[in-house]
């Protein structure tokens, strides 16, 4: 198996953006041509605008159903852009969020099943990543991280629903689950360990794109990264 597309997914506050940035940077430093791509749905950006306008969050500004539509469309366009860039540039793409994030968002926010069916029809043209890492985190930990960002807030009820939403997806058995409750260094080490494990068969057959830098990745220091979520 040659890993060319790697997706990091999970509930808000799980550290997807932090870890996706780190993974892409560390692979590139190890000699693997890797880039970071963000497939955001715009919810955090709209949330920032809402706060500046005196509203509580994105849904308070434009409504729950409207925000879900906007999120679905923007994420679809972001994924399309990511895949088009991948087709032209090659190398390894580390994706911050993917289609399953939209399905989980719809479930966690109480959308009707028909909304998810429509989303799946729209997203069905996108290929499944070579590996999808699901970063799992306790809702209490996720809420503390979100509040520390200072520009949005999620209720405990929603965070628990989001955790359950990912577990309920039909794609869940294909995910590589990573415990993201630890420090950024600990989570990063777990991701690299899984990548080495997944790359090992490919190394035996064809030289192993990712395994070639495994020793470097295992020894790399993680100083200089800020633990933050952007979008």
From TrEMBL:
Name all Thymidylate kinase-like domain ranges: 10-189
**UniProt-recorded Gene Ontology molecular function terms:** kinase activity
Residues that bind ATP: 10-17
UniProt catalytic activity? dTMP + ATP = dTDP + ADP
Q: Where are the transmembrane segments?
A: 207-228
Q: Which InterPro entries match?
A: P-loop_NTPase, Thymidylate_kin-like_dom, Thymidylate_kinase
Q: Which EC number(s) does UniProt give? A: 2.7.4.9
- The highest taxon in the source lineage is Bacteria
Alphabetically sorted, this entry's keywords are: ATP-binding, Kinase, Membrane, Nucleotide biosynthesis, Nucleotide-binding, Transferase, Transmembrane, Transmembrane helix
- Note the Pfam families from the entry: Thymidylate_kin
Q: Which HAMAP family match?
A: Thymidylate_kinase (MF_00165)
The Swiss-Prot or TrEMBL record describes its family as follows: Belongs to the thymidylate kinase family.
Q: What does this protein do?
A: Phosphorylation of dTMP to form dTDP in both de novo and salvage pathways of dTTP synthesis.
Protein name per its UniProtKB record: Thymidylate kinase
Organism listed in the record:
Paractinoplanes deccanensis
Taxonomy of the source species: Bacteria, Bacillati, Actinomycetota, Actinomycetes, Micromonosporales
């Amino acid at each position: 198996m040659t890993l060319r597309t790697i997706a990091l997914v999970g509930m808000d506050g799980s550290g997807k953006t932090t870890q996706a940035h780190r993974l892409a940077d560390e692979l590139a430093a190890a000699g693997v041509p890797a880039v970071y791509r963000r497939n955001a749905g715009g919810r955090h950006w709209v949330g920032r605008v809402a706060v500046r306008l005196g509203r509580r969050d994105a849904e308070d500004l434009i409504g729950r159903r409207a925000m879900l539509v906007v999120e679905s469309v923007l994420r679809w366009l972001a994924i399309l852009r990511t895949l088009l860039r991948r087709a032209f540039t090659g190398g390894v793409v580390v994706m911050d969020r993917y289609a399953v994030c939209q399905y989980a968002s719809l479930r966690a926010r109480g959308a009707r099943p028909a909304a998810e069916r429509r989303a799946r029809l729209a997203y069905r043209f996108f290929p499944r990543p070579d590996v999808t890492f699901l970063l799992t985190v306790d809702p209490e930990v996720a809420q503390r991280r979100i509040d520390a960002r200072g520009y949005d807030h999620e209720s405990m009820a929603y965070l628990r629903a989001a955790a359950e939403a990912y577990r309920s997806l039909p794609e869940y058995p294909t995910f590589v689950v990573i415990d993201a409750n630890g420090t950024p260094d600990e989570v990063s080490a777990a991701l690299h360990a899984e990548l080495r494990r997944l790359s090992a068969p490919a190394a035996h057959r064809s030289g192993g794109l990712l395994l070639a830098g495994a020793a470097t990745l295992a020894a790399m220091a993680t100083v200089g990264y800020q633990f933050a979520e952007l979008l």
